[in-house]
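mind reviewing both lines:
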Amino acid sequence: MDASFPLETLEGHHEYESPLVKRYATKEMSRVWSPAMKFSTWRKLWLALATAEKELGIEISDEQLEEMKAQLYNIDFEFAAQKEKEFRHDVMGHVHAFGEVAPAAMPIIHLGATSCYVGDNTDIILIREALHLVKRKLVQTLDVLKAFAEKYKDLPTLGFTHFQPAQLTTVGKRATLWMQDLLLDLERVQFEIDNLPMRGVKGTTGTQASFLELFSGDHDKVKALNKRVCELMGFEKAIAVSGQTYSRKIDYNVLSVLSGIAQSAYKMCGDIRLLANLKEVEEPFSKTQIGSSAMAYKRNPMRSERVCSLARYVISLPSGAANTHASQWFERTLDDSAIRRVILPEGFLAVDVILNLLHNISDGLHVWPNVIRQHAMAELPFMATEVILMECVKAGGDRQELHEAIRVHSMDAGAVVKGEGKPNDLLERIANDSLFAAVHDKLDAMIDPILFVGRAPQQVDEFLEEEVNPVLERNAALLQIESVDGVNV
């Protein structure tokens, strides 16, 4: 059968659509990276440049500035595309589109600037906007996880190392491990927000030569122009030196932060997927949700799986930024352009989806205490043997004789569990052995799981009080903002 389709059919569905945008991305993050945001920011940058130039003595009229200000959002995208096709230059296409609706300002739009003035500065502005959105969603996810950790701080559960049974911990303590990673990510996000510089006003190779010419050799005015443009765009500083572009190492640093969030999310959701298999903890599952088209009984952790899938993609992105930075020749080469148009928006779009999913999963985690206890009690007799040994020795028993007896009983009990598929009967063996008579009347009390969790409940309290609460208090306003999008699939 032919794999193609008649071109006169299925109208409106002939072109590839990115599933990241069409299926997953939120309206909020999509808006940050939208053409409307990008090209209206270009116009704001042109307005800021003209405003600062006028303030510093360049002959620009109030009428020109007012005309530019009035047309910031009146963008004829079709006209700009026609001009870009004519000039084979996207920036000049939009210069002419702006000049078309602001004809009085046309002579001074982009005065002294190079394409990277609007391109690079806009990228930095959008990155900062996107980081603020990521920060908000990190804070909100931490808030939901805090409630979960508090609720289950005293619920003993089997710990795992190498995914083999280990000492007990608590369900809440395990959640703090996820939260610790997200807190570290939040610190990195805040650092980037606080330290992200604008490219500023630098010229074609970063020497500001065109602006020095514009101001007739007045170095102080060129410096003042750079500072004033940054101020008008809401930035306290510009990058100290640049070639034509800002250092592409900034892109690498930002994508590394996003990769870190993706790593944390993958680890958390990987744990949830394993716990779902054990039937101890499960992600939200709606009444009408279908786990498998063939196996109707299945309850798959599809949201956690989606997080891991998208996280794997984000984790891969810093290598592209690293190679782009490393391969930039001298003051700039254009082989940075195409890849940056893809990996910067998509990195943020994917992380935003991941954080929406993390919040949704965390808010609806279903814990099954009886299953958790059953798994803990299956292993706890082995863990309790040291306590039993010490109690019997304190009652006058021979340590070596007791140790050997426990070893033999443990091997026999293990053989029953593995060889016959029966429950762990180690405690019954000990209860029937006169060597352990000193503890026969208190065996049940000695194997209460809560006695084997160490300081886990206290660690949860301390972590939330000392590490999490201060962050949530500093960002209390962010907790009041509702996300535009939920989780639909």
About this structure: The chain has a mean pLDDT of 94. The two ends are 32 Å apart (CA to CA). The first helix runs from residue 19 to 24.
